[in-house]
Amino acid sequence: MMAALSDFHFMRPLWLLAILPAIAVWLAWRRMGDPAWRWRGVIDPELLPHLIVGADRRARMGPVAWGLVASVITAVAVAGPVWRRAPSPFAEARPPAVVVLKATPSMQEDDLAPTRLDRALQKLSDILAAREGAATGLVAYAGSAHLVLPPTADSAVVLDMAKAISPQIMPKEGDDLTAALALASRALAGTPDGGSILVLADEIPARTAAVGAPVTVLALRPPGRDMQDMDEAARAAGARLVPLTIDQGDVATVVRALDAGDTARAAPGEGERWREDGYWLAFPLALLALLWFRRGWVLS
């Protein structure tokens, strides 16, 4: 309750100035409708209420008085009273992600048909389809790391670029995942929302350094293969390991992790807007409008 009161404000406060002319009209009407107003300088004030017929008419709420109430309610409604937030319809539905693809000779082994690299591309295609519209970047690495694409919403381009990656085009042999993660983290730093990193690899070096962004590793090893070494290395690097499955279970797990993004980096209230609740005042306005159909009401 206190938080709502502290957040209460008007989106268009200048509309509240419309109340002033409404009050001026009401005061002028009240003065003109007061039968005792013209005699106050002539008759003793103590006797005036008893000598003037209809002197108590001011106490009744007439059409102009109710019009003032309606004007105040309308001005408040148009001014846009707000005290709570709602998700913006224009906010990005999913946080960005950077895919880190390993391109070493081991990724061409055929224990995953047709090869580990081909299976990685198949899984990447499914993940991109499940996150359609989300910004995705691409980093390729072997003995060195290289930014292929910064985060983009065009998933078709990301997949086409990933298909062009192979061990043969990498300039240096090796397995420098630490450099790849650092490069992916820098790519995410240029995005407004907190994002995460997806690693497609068959091995994690034991001394891989952790980065600030959340890291998910899809293990490109045959289902049932021992994952203890990769699991330990992933935990040491602050990453989450997702074993490969023959169905879409691994894809669903990865998509949930990427959709969670980096909530710690996301600014409070980012992707939200103030929710206007002035439309609720339309109901008392409708009730006031019914009074104008009351028989016998006149403005005089």
From TrEMBL:
Name of the protein: Ca-activated chloride channel family protein
Pfam (any one): VWA_2
Top-level lineage group: Bacteria
Membrane-spanning residues: 64-83
PANTHER family: SPORE GERMINATION PROTEIN, VWFA DOMAIN-CONTAINING PROTEIN
Keyword presence, Cell membrane: no
Residues annotated as domain VWFA: 98-202
Keyword Nuclease: no
UniProtKB keywords: Membrane, Transmembrane, Transmembrane helix
Taxonomy of the source species: Bacteria, Pseudomonadati, Pseudomonadota, Alphaproteobacteria, Hyphomicrobiales
InterPro entries, alphabetized: UPF0353/GerABKA_families, VWF_A, vWFA_dom_sf
